[in-house]
Amino acid sequence: MTNRTNPVVAAPAGAAAVRPGAGRITAGIVAVAAILPYLALKTVWSFGGTIGLADIGAADEDTLRALNLLTFGMDLVALVLALAFTRPWGLRLPVWLVILPMWVGTGFLAPIAILVPIQVLILGAEAETAGGPVQPWVYAVVYTGFVVQGLALMTAFALYARDRWPWLFVAGGTARGATYSLQVVLAWGAGVFCVGIGALRLLWAFGGTVGLPGWLVAEYDATVRTQTGVFGLACLVAAAGLAGMLRGGPWPFWIPLAAAWGGAGVMFSWSIWSTALTLIPNPFGGPVRLAAVPALTDLFATLAAVVVGLTAAFLLAERAALAGQAGEGAAADGS
Hints:
Layout: H1 22-46, H2 62-86, H3 95-123, H4 136-164, E1 171-172, H5 180-205, H6 214-217, H7 222-247, E2 249-252, H8 254-279, H9 292-334
Antiparallel strand pairs: 1-2
């Protein structure tokens, strides 16, 4: 019989049994190599070592120890993910165990991969003299590692996703299942906040001061403006990506999915991090005076990112169900 299943959602049989290719293995190994120096430093600091610290007394601060343990744990998760992307057992991991940490990790690492080269071009050698409780060479080692780690980990994940969920990488319309109307409502709500916050952050990046107190305006140097601009663009990209996922089009589905994924990830991860560093005493400047408008934009950016993520999850779950039905139909037609 002729196979009449929708090619948009039909998944090849045995996709879950695909063995990692050379590209996925290489990207995973590079990610592991980039992660290890950071983990080594965090291990030393967690046990009271002072290598690389400009302020030796900082090693005894409880907040820095807690921050070291937190970031050590985050990078340890990244290490496990990188290994999972290189091994066949990685395809058998529960979806949430891969998606959630990878979404947060993408949100943290993607801006760094963009910003560090830009800052090096703008500041040159001064980019390494960032101050704080650590020596300049630590910044060079850590942030170079973050750039390589981010690019390698995201490459490995993209290849992993292509093997595990091949239906994400074909062109065609979107899945309009039982929750589609709800998805549209949620997308509009989140999209309004994404566009509004993105426009405001871009205004600040280009010199606008609406909503910024005078003491904070003085802190907006070239580095901060660049970071703010990247965050603003991420907000707009998240909104555009979610709209593209819901509307469908001639493009491969992974393009708007990647936009919504990356944009919302940046919004969630860096808003949470910014809020934590603002409110909790730490060697990097917190707590500081709270600026109402920036704090509110962080709050609403976090909430909007969660809504974007949940809306995309609904859509992907329905698309995955259609892919499974199409695969069963193809098997039946071939029998």
